[in-house]
Amino acid sequence: MITTLGPCKHLSPRSGFVSDDEKIPANIVRAPDRPDDPGPLFELAGPREHLYFDPPRVRAGIVTCGGLCPGLNNVIRSLVRELHGGYEVREVIGFRMGYGGLDPRNHHEPMVLVHSSVDDIHQQGGTILGTSRGPVDIDAAVENLIRRKIDMLFCIGGDGTQRGAYALYEACKARGHALAVVGVPKTIDNDVLYVDRTFGYLTALEEARHVIDAAHNEARSVVNGVALVKLMGRHAGFIAAGATIASQDVNFTLVPEVPFRLDGKGGFVAALTARVRDRGHAVVVVAEGAGQDLFPAEPRATDASGNVKLKDIGPFLAKAIAEGFAAENLPLTLRYFDPGYQIRSTPANCEDAVLCDMFARQAVHAAMAGKTGMVVGLLHGTFIHVPTSLILSGAKQLDTDGLFWHSVLAANQQPDRFG
Amino acid sequence: MITTLGPCKHLSPRSGFVSDDEKIPANIVRAPDRPDDPGPLFELAGPREHLYFDPPRVRAGIVTCGGLCPGLNNVIRSLVRELHGGYEVREVIGFRMGYGGLDPRNHHEPMVLVHSSVDDIHQQGGTILGTSRGPVDIDAAVENLIRRKIDMLFCIGGDGTQRGAYALYEACKARGHALAVVGVPKTIDNDVLYVDRTFGYLTALEEARHVIDAAHNEARSVVNGVALVKLMGRHAGFIAAGATIASQDVNFTLVPEVPFRLDGKGGFVAALTARVRDRGHAVVVVAEGAGQDLFPAEPRATDASGNVKLKDIGPFLAKAIAEGFAAENLPLTLRYFDPGYQIRSTPANCEDAVLCDMFARQAVHAAMAGKTGMVVGLLHGTFIHVPTSLILSGAKQLDTDGLFWHSVLAANQQPDRFG
Amino acid sequence: MITTLGPCKHLSPRSGFVSDDEKIPANIVRAPDRPDDPGPLFELAGPREHLYFDPPRVRAGIVTCGGLCPGLNNVIRSLVRELHGGYEVREVIGFRMGYGGLDPRNHHEPMVLVHSSVDDIHQQGGTILGTSRGPVDIDAAVENLIRRKIDMLFCIGGDGTQRGAYALYEACKARGHALAVVGVPKTIDNDVLYVDRTFGYLTALEEARHVIDAAHNEARSVVNGVALVKLMGRHAGFIAAGATIASQDVNFTLVPEVPFRLDGKGGFVAALTARVRDRGHAVVVVAEGAGQDLFPAEPRATDASGNVKLKDIGPFLAKAIAEGFAAENLPLTLRYFDPGYQIRSTPANCEDAVLCDMFARQAVHAAMAGKTGMVVGLLHGTFIHVPTSLILSGAKQLDTDGLFWHSVLAANQQPDRFG
Amino acid sequence: MITTLGPCKHLSPRSGFVSDDEKIPANIVRAPDRPDDPGPLFELAGPREHLYFDPPRVRAGIVTCGGLCPGLNNVIRSLVRELHGGYEVREVIGFRMGYGGLDPRNHHEPMVLVHSSVDDIHQQGGTILGTSRGPVDIDAAVENLIRRKIDMLFCIGGDGTQRGAYALYEACKARGHALAVVGVPKTIDNDVLYVDRTFGYLTALEEARHVIDAAHNEARSVVNGVALVKLMGRHAGFIAAGATIASQDVNFTLVPEVPFRLDGKGGFVAALTARVRDRGHAVVVVAEGAGQDLFPAEPRATDASGNVKLKDIGPFLAKAIAEGFAAENLPLTLRYFDPGYQIRSTPANCEDAVLCDMFARQAVHAAMAGKTGMVVGLLHGTFIHVPTSLILSGAKQLDTDGLFWHSVLAANQQPDRFG
């Protein structure tokens, strides 16, 4: 159930309306031996006929948080264009450098965003607003939002960002300021519940394949070449998996969802040395969140965003591989590729550009109707409204019994399990 | 309801099975004021536990028909790999040059497809099997299929191809030969019912945007520059629409779903000259099937595939634009771009590569279970089995009241209608 | 011998000077049986210690003329940056829409070019100044240049442009106005004397190869596929030749330097049908200026730039091919590619970007030293000053006895001559 | 003076011959106040009329050594094609895994290279022959070459490779076996004397710019973002310099030719912090061989090829930057990019493809004429024969007083010197 700031008394200047009563269920698969359990129902996103805000009086704010992801500028651009062009909102403000920019003490002066200031930005990676990790100082931010008379805030970011966004809404409400907070989910890892595909993911695949192509060329041109490519994927291996299927040149794909043993018969290193003995080279892709259980169980630090700092599986695996080959007296030419920042800064490809545009415009429609404490989702191919609490209730992971992971195993021919 | 050749008595060598009883409905939107009408239910695609065929005895055939589309080689490759690697089928035959290759009188000797013959083909556009337009000679083809003891035929192609595929199944049945015919829907236009997205479409967007970028650069560098880009889209404007959203540099998008008037106040030409007077240049994208009603209503020829031959809207529109500018004494520098074949021959991008792989593997699973007269579909993000008759019952078009087309109009700022 | 406006009395604010006395010869090959004939000697380009103009008082103008070419914006940007950054020139004016922009009656208001107005332009194809074909109206332009107190004019363009540039200098001189006119040679065809490689040529090769790849995929996927690709090259086949070597997938390369017969034994059509009979497909690349002698010898029209309008060899050849196949009763699937405008509008690749930057900066150095009636050249890998009259005295063509053309014939395996 | 195995008694089956008497001088600049010193004269490369070897009896070998470089497969392909196609040589053998493959004890069985085995290899990065670092065991290799009756050996590699090549020739001669050894110079660093541009360099620029674009996007999207990109360049900064000019987004370019001080007023760190204070971000490109004097002067190890192992300037600089910012209490978001292997494994771009083809074919012509102890060079735009001893007599570096480095300083606006 989506929270709304209040009754919608203003008529929309747009057309093609969607009703709050149209809904889709989380679960659409039916089977005779199972009770029909639709799970949560989500209202459809899209323009509403009746608005909570009077468009020409709206002051909107935009903020981008966390790590870079292809498409951030596209989202900013389409938010600005829909606000200005679709609703004739007069003031749109871009807060700079993530949540830090909401706090005036950081001296990141906000940008006024007009039509021309976003003209070509979708052709560039990164975010013109800047970004940072780290939580929002609720009091300072709320004070600032109220002082600047911001009516709606679009928060483009991941888990922490959406959690902070909801806290902002609640604190504003406590102070009697009606702030619509609408999130656009951002994670290059594609691991958000109720979002079929987050923007940036497909662009990341392209760039990852580009690097895997190089890694493959390198591996097969040297004596016992092993190319190890670390890709994004803190809790879910979608990028590693998708790049494996797209490339068809990866021989081992290690993801967080499938724990693996390094040593011993049936372990990863034994499989790798066997492959190299047999074929002379190998390409290994590892998601950054894979194999975390291989590190000593010590208290883990967290980063500024509150995420547990992952141990770096890349160099760890490289070392294990080198030791494994040495133990077998097998020469090894190991090449390590860590293209993370390169991938994150790439401009959006076409499908991501379309996705960004559609996410952004649905976010504006929702905010105009006074929806708050929600993010825009994309379920079964349909844009929806998702309560922030629901989207934060878990995370999407690879279904290792599903067709997608089957395609990975068919492509790389690795065993179901190592060890 | 999917036709099956007979009872499934063989055990699958695979795992991760899907049951025929799991289904998803065509319609998932629920609204309180409407009765819940799920529409047709579709069984889920995926590996079956019980097979009609005994895998090691299977002889499979593959044929690609109609115009080129990014991803054809990916589909061929994954069919071969799933047959050989997933089921250990021993004989896979590639019929050459479309349906013409089923008829021995055309002397297109089929290729035996083994693991190594498809190794790198996914990195290339086109189809290693070759393709052609034109119907299948049922009698000759059936004779040949029976003689070659082909058990299953994978038909990669559009409407006409799937229609022919079904006819082949029926004719074989009449002759007492159990042929599983499974289609993989192929159309760069993305206009197939019960298929969220056909392979090749996203790659086409990338290549189309590449050409639109050039067209935009050209148009804005010359005096009153108008760049006219003809894109694919016989009956549906998905490519023109998607490229418009992705590029954000298109000013007019003409698609089959939205008829337009050329002349007079409110017509397209008046809008174009107004834009050029105001901004000095314009980019126009036209789908090949747009504006067909502007041509004289005469009996239309059909091509070898039985498709009505479209009139060529590109040069027609170029002429109309030139005349319109001349009538207003407005200088014009017109550049015409017709990148159709260039787009069709591009290798698949990552998402299309993934899509091709998954379509192909589900096609193999279906055929092994003896399903026939069907194509693999993709509905609400889920791979399904669709009876061929149902997929041929209509075509997908742009919903001009929907969010996607709204994004197009927001990007190009063109009026809802011309005239 | 380079014309100079007068004595150089101002000291340069720069360093790393080159002397007017340093020269390189046109001909560097020595052979014992030949007298050593160096041909013309050219002074080296680069910064001069003594300047004719007092930099802070200079008013500079820039104009781009003729067809688009990758790198135009790079040249504009580096001219502006060298003028502002290297010499602290205060006023730089961009005349718009080619020579037409020098004539105030055309109402193309010039742009004032400052550091920030050229910031990102090198990432885009086209020219921000606009361009057009057509001669300069000397009287109107000179009047305008004098009125605007323009001291130096950078003319980026081909033959006609440089000819006009020289006329401007002479007319200014007759009116007592010291105008330094320095040309930057621009032709995508790479056919300028004393210029090893014109900017845009290498980018054109990349884009041409991209289209040839598609053409090759198309040709080999259809029955008797012939892909015909028309590329730039009015009088010289450098693009067709370079793309052939780079691609290695072209079977026939037709250039202006090598006349060919279409019909009869030994003719092009016979060679093409033989290839298709043998291999099933062929890729043909034709430069736009090839085969002009195959058209009826009638008086030829000229375009606005005064260039003889070429007959369109592309459709002509397509027709001849179709007729040739028909005459032999050989089925044919012909695909025609005409990517000219697409190639011309591409942003510069790295090597062209470097070339543009270096051409532009040497042009500024030359103008500051009061050199006029000259263009910047690039001979034996060295930037030089070339009198405009000398650069217009002929054109560079493929040496059909040389190593480059030998590489073409080795790649495509075509006979030395057709007919 | 090029060494020749003996008199040329066989007639060439080719045409378009070049004479040994045609020569170009190393130095072509003339100045009145300097005596005309042409320096060494080099004979032109190209097909010779008279050959030392009888082509149909030739057995040729090819070996690729050292690190990967874009274009290796193009060179292999054109060697094979020129040998088979141009001279009808019957046996071409590819030795595998660098010089290690010449020694049978390493069990790298050579490949027989025929026309079809190199068909599509130019489209892939890496080398199909494989490569390795490390010297050649002269005795074992010579024994093997004699046993296999190899007449000519094409050695594609850098300094150490060419040195080894010459030693092979001499040892064969001592054993009475006439081996023509012809080198194709390979270094991605572009630092070979008498070679205007080595193959792979331009492709490296493109890929480097691609990474710099990402680095720039990253740097300007975060708080005080510094992107540090390490590029190739052991002794010469051509890649760092060229990528700076092409990108125009680099702020600091550190190369081996220009020593720099890190600390203190006028040092690099002070300049960097000043830039970040002023502009909020910076992009730093460092060649791998830059700043080696900043490391303690201890005895240096050498790699298997005998090259001194460079200290890794990347992490060293990253640490220095972090300390410098910390010392000034300036927040820093540092991103480090190390794309070396990615760049080395990229397929050749068009200009490199052309270059590879032409280098390879001239190498074949030279070997056929019995030239030995030489490499193919490219001077003043002309392919030449260079004695191996001469090419090893030094290395090419950036001329820091020249026009190219001036363009770098104009692009990045860095001071001439740090400290």
Structure description:
Four copies of one chain form a homotetramer. With 419 residues, chain A is an alpha/beta fold. The first copy, chain A, has two domains: 3-198 and 347-391, Rossmann fold (3-Layer(aba) Sandwich); 201-345 and 401-412, Rossmann fold (3-Layer(aba) Sandwich). Chain A contains eleven helices and 17 strands. Chain A has helices at residues 72-87, 138-147, 159-174, 201-219, 238-247, 268-279, 313-327, 340-344, 350-368, 388-391, 403-412; strands spanning 3-4, 10-11, 23-25, 41-43, 50-51, 59-64, 91-94, 111-112, 152-157, 180-185, 225-231, 252-254, 281-287, 333-337, 371-372, 374-379, 382-387. A seven-stranded mixed beta sheet of chain A has the order 8-7-6-9-10-16-17, with helices on both faces. The first copy, chain A, has a four-stranded parallel beta sheet with strand order 12-13-11-14, with helices on both faces. The first copy, chain A, has a two-stranded antiparallel sheet with strand order 1-15. In chain A, helix 1 links the parallel strand 6 and strand 7. In chain A, helix 5 (238-247) crosses helix 11 (403-412). The relative contact order of chain A is 0.18. The model of chain A has no long low-confidence stretch (mean pLDDT 95). At the A-B interface, strand 3, helix 1, helix 4, helix 5 and helix 9 of A face strand 3, helix 1, helix 4, helix 5 and helix 9 of B.
